[in-house]
Write a structure and sequence with these properties.
184 residues; alpha+beta; YbaK protein; 5-stranded mixed beta sheet; 6 helices; globular; YbaK/aa-tRNA-synth-assoc-dom; aminoacyl-tRNA deacylase activity; Prolyl-tRNA editing enzyme YbaK/EbsC (Cys-tRNA(Pro) deacylase); YbaK/aa-tRNA-synt-asso_dom_sf
């Protein structure tokens, strides 16, 4: 079975590419702890034009679609309170915002967060949002298929570059909850 690393010429430990990562992501890599060693978090340099999953897959190969995961920010509303949360699903699925997410967060209504809200709250760029380096109090909802993946290709916080991370590491992020059928 191929891994996301097979599609790239240069995959290196993310700790060796801190200068290419946005602040919150670099800080999270620098302070990494968990059962997955930091050396297993890899960085690959990619052209910002290929940041979107569909374009990246077209450029590097269709096999990456099932090995990629997308991170989206949702806004869950209950009463007057809004909770921002990150959802991570495989690239060939979409987040069940109005079902699994809404119920898990106990919200009356859940929707994708406005782009300016998501980017302002994360310190990341559109097309590069990643669950690594998010605010510590955020819920991070990880689809079980992502958590069970040996490696997935995710954003790096900016449009330039991607991270290749074991699914287990994503399931262990602060605030992470693994949910079945988050991606449909």
């Amino acid at each position: 079975m191929s891994t996301p690393m097979d599609a790239f010429d240069d995959a290196r430990p993310a700790a060796e590419a801190l200068d290419l990562l946005v602040g919150p992501v670099a800080d999270a890599v620098r302070g990494w702890h968990g059962s997955v060693p930091a050396e297993q978090l890899l960085y690959v340099d990619t052209d910002p034009r290929w940041a979107d999953t569909a374009v990246l897959v077209e450029h590097y190969g269709a096999g990456l679609l099932e090995q990629s995961a997308n991170c989206v920010v949702v806004a869950a509303k209950r009463g007057g309170a809004i909770t921002l949360a990150a959802c991570l699903v495989l690239g060939h699925t979409r987040v069940d915002v109005n079902g699994v997410v809404r119920r898990h967060l106990g919200a009356r209504k859940a929707s994708f967060a406005p782009m300016d809200t998501a980017l302002g709250a994360t310190g990341m760029e559109f097309g590069g949002v990643t669950p690594i380096g998010l605010p510590a109090d955020w819920p991070v909802l990880v689809d079980a298929a992502v958590a069970d993946s040996p490696y997935v290709l995710i954003g790096s916080g900016s449009r330039r570059g991607k991270l290749i991370v074991p699914g287990k590491a994503l399931a262990e992020l602060p605030g992470a909850t693994v949910l079945a059928a988050l991606g449909v």
